[in-house]
Write a structure and sequence with these properties.
5 helices, 102 residues, mainly alpha
Amino acid sequence: MEGLAESAVEEYCGTKYVAEWCHKYSEKDLTRFWSKMIKPNKSVTREDTMHDRILFGKGFLPTMAGYAVGYKLIQRYLKEHPTVLTLDLLEVDSKEFFREVL
């Protein structure tokens, strides 16, 4: 779900209005964040302190890493489905989404 809001901002307001962290990291960085931090912790619940550490980049983790990865995954999906709007993604099954973007 992370990344949907910034995708909506970009879609409805323009790229110049998106948060700085959306374009802060390279594709290589985001791939590394996914494989080293997010994927191994995908079962972490909101109550676990690791959740916010990954999402916001607390401690030694990169700033807003979880949000940045979420945004990039949303953008990848939208690029491959040009007729889909950000709002439409609320109805896409998460398993289908991940099959297509990973």
